[in-house]
């Protein structure tokens, strides 16, 4: 997604790292760049607002459960595949292999 306007920080970069921004997992300088981008790019600001709302909803509904670290790693790995545009298998990659 892009608004079509030139920005100091490209829309694709902002959207590729949106969850790092939402989770405060980026350096302050990068956070400042993103905040500046959101101030001038309403489509990215809208996407940020939507993702922030989803994150809050998930936290409210599921925030009391501890997530096993191996499941978290598998989910993050799958998200990385999606972000980089690699093919994501249709089957459940988090499931244990079944023996024949």
TrEMBL record:
InterPro entries, A to Z: Anit_sigma_mycothiol_RsrA, Znf_put
Domain Putative zinc-finger, first and last residues per copy: 11-44
Pfam family, one: zf-HC2
Listed NCBIfam families: antisig_RsrA
The name this protein goes by in its record: Anti-sigma factor RsrA
Gene symbol of the encoding locus: rsrA
